[in-house]
Amino acid sequence: MNYINLKLPDDSIMQVKKGTTVQEVAYQISPRLAKDAVCGRYNGDLVDLQYPINADGTYSVVTIDSPEGIDVLRHTTAHVMAQAVLRLWPDAKLAIGPTIENGFYYDFDLGHSITPEDLETIEAEMHKIIADDLPVKRFEVSKDEAAQLFKERNDNYKLELIADLDNEVSIYQQGDFFDLCRGPHLSSTGRIKAFKLLSVAGAYWRGDDSKPMLQRIYGTAFFKKSDLDAYLKRMEEAKKRDHRKVGRELELFVLLEEGPGFPFLLPKGMELRNTLIDFWREEHKKAGYLEISTPIILHQNLWHRSGHWDHYKENMYFTKIDGEDYAIKPMNCPGGMLVYKNKMHSYRDLPLRLGELGLVHRHELSGVLHGLMRVRNFTQDDAHIFMLPEQIKDEITDLIAFIDKFYSVFGFKYHMELSTRPENSMGSDEDWEVATNALKAALEENGYEYILNEGDGAFYGPKIDFHLEDCLGRTWQCGTIQLDFQMPERFDLTYVGQDGEKHRPVMIHRVVFGSIERFIGIIIEHFAGAFPTWLAPVQVRVIPIAQGHHEYATVVADQLSGKGIRLEIDQRNEKLGYKIREAQMQKIPYMLIVGDQEKENNSVAVRSREEGDLGTVSLDEFTDNIAEEINSKTL
RNA sequence: GCCCUUGUAGUUCAGUGAUAGAACAAUUGCCUCGUAAGCAAUGAACGUAGGUUUGAUUCCUACCAAGGGCUCCA
User: Fold this and answer.
1) How many CB atoms lie within 10 A of CB A230?
2) Does residue A363 approach strand B to less than 7 Å at its CB?
3) What tens digit of pLDDT does each residue of A294-323 get?
4) How far does the CA of A176 sit from the C1' of B50, in Å?
């Protein structure tokens, strides 16, 4: 009898008979482990439970509570869904069916348009397949054999996939269904306990808009019903704080048919925006920035010169003035270049930091517009920093700390990504290398962790992007630092060095919020509309109990607004409970209830949005407290 | 831009081949009120343009807009 040695995760060696399956090994370690086993990891590769181990190697069990385990479950669920779809519509052709972050999808090509109602029918069919507890089997075949199989099913998508593969191809089969798949899979369909089909959507074959449009069904699956329910509940939560819904309810902004992708900010949204901008200006002044403003419409020659005509034309809007061609700016940089060129600069002036809250317009495809998150015009909190080459690293180091300061105020966590040279870009390889290395050095020498995105840079230079994470764990790209050797070259920017000669400065483009509008959308969802007091468009609502208290309410209001506090008085002829409910729904941080007692003692009864009735304090005390809260930007 | 779904009052949602209904909001009146909805009355809508039909908000077509999706490779 042959024995083999398996190295387990705790570095111990286990001896088993040659040919023992992954499942059996797990059972020998512990029956409990075998019960929770989804598949195994043998010599680093994921393998099915039925996989027989024939040689020494490392071994570990993948269980239902690991990310890989859930992935396998979802993958098998995708196969079951494909099987159900084929039973219902035998002429369907299968494209791809991978797992994604929170579930899976499968793309189909079929004549019938799948409707949301069909999802229930498909689910019912899937439940039958699960109830039958069909064993899932793996076969390894040659490419030609595989091609033969899918030719019979007339499935040109799979044939295309097979053509791209190496010699050995694996097929998974359950009942009458088989699919091309790398695996691994659950051992049988009965192990699927909790799944749900979520939506149908169109998707191009291989994401290419010149290829046929397929029908994609999204779904998700979990090992426990309670996990599925928790996931669905989290989705509901996210829906409740959707910035489009909250923005309407709190009267922050609107999007109208008259301006698709062009948001209107309402008075309260404008308060929010102005508060953000005040904060931005204050910090930028402290950090040595000067502020400029450049025109929205500029002559087309400028855009030829900047390279936008060649690289960004598709996203730009154009207009004619006095017979000349003009363009509406999609970016602020060319205007910034002209400001720099307006006078001579000495090396002593550098780094020169020019900030601009610039309104840019970009033509985005109609199908991608989304609330404030994806729009056709937005305000960038831009800045262009001109400096000596030897100042790059320090400047970037300072910038990272600067951006960090902003995000901390909102309680956002974030991570950074470094993007390198894309196709269709400008400049020499050497410039790109120098620029990329400077960014890398600033990150690495300061001990920052980052993700590398090859080929994802801007057309004029590499960049560091900041992805912040909101309270639901979703990430949003906001800040970015982009190094640019091209623009100074194209605009022939110079400074006079110590030697009295002209030299070429290096430039950084950077934003902190990214788009002010989008940042507003993000914080709406992050705070679910319940903004910290310093940001809240209305910080206090004074609520007189009855009409006899209106006069004192005005006294209270005058004192507070004298300190710059934003407030409203609710003088409607309604009951106290009614007014409180409404203020509560408007998520106003503080309600000040004033009646006879308060009037007598020059006090206010404070009710907080979060904690309810806080009791009575003197008007002066409340004024001091809230001023301090606003000043410190307490979360 | 492309695919699917959806457009009814300020908002959320009913509904019908012939008279379009509710709740909340708004306005007005009554109640003068102590911590999440007092009572009543009133005004207010079928996205746009064609077509089918005796008759269309409803069925059909086009357009406009909104929602989901179009990177995550068997």
Assistant:
1) 12
2) no
3) 999 999 999 999 989 988 888 999 999 999
4) 51
Contact A139, A170 (CB under 8 A): yes
Report the catalytic residues of A: 333, 362, 380, 382, 384, 463, 509
Domain of residue A430: give its range: 258-296+332-527
The sheet that has A177-180: what strands, in order across it? A137-142, A168-174, A177-180
Nucleotide nearest to A606 (CA to C1'): B35
**Residues A427-449: tens digit of each pLDDT:** 788 888 888 888 898 899 888 98
Interatomic CA–C1' length for residue A573 and nucleotide B43, angstroms: 20
CATH number of the domain within which A18 lies: 3.10.20.30
CATH code at A624? Answer: 3.40.50.800
Positions of chain B reached by protein Cβ under 7 A: 1-5, 11-12, 26, 30-38, 64-74
Q: What is the ipTM of this complex?
A: 0.92
Q: Which residues pair with A41 in a beta bridge?
A: A46, A60
Assigned token pair, A106: 């499968």
Judged by C1' against the alpha carbon of A367, the nearest nucleotide is: B1
Asked if the Cβ of residue A255 lies within 7 A of any atom of strand B, the reply is yes
User: Rounded to an integer, what distance in angstroms lies between the CA atom of residue A518 and that of residue A407?
Assistant: 14
Categorize the per-residue pLDDT at A485 as very low, low, confident or very high, splitting at 50, 70 and 90. Answer: confident
Give the pair of three-digit tokens for residue A574: 């309604």
Q: Is the domain of A185 the same as that of A81?
A: yes
- Nucleotide closest in space to A242 (CA vs C1'): B67
Which residues in range 235-254 of chain A are in contact with strand B, contact meaning CB within 7 A of any of its atoms?
Answer: 244, 248
Q: How far apart are CA A39 and CA A27, in angstroms?
A: 12
User: What are the E-state strand segments in A175-308?
Assistant: 177-180, 194-204, 213-222, 253-254, 264-265, 290-291, 297-299
- Give residue A1's pLDDT: 63
Residue A589 Cβ under 7 A from any strand B atom: no
The distance of Cα A279 from the centroid of its chain, to the nearest Å, equals 24
3-state helix, strand, coil split of chain A in percent (to 5) is: 40, 30, 30
Regarding whether A487 and A390 lie in a shared domain, the answer is yes
Please give the model's pTM, rounded to 2 decimal places.
0.88
DSSP state of A498: T
Judgement on whether residues A357 and A404 belong to the same structural domain of the protein: yes
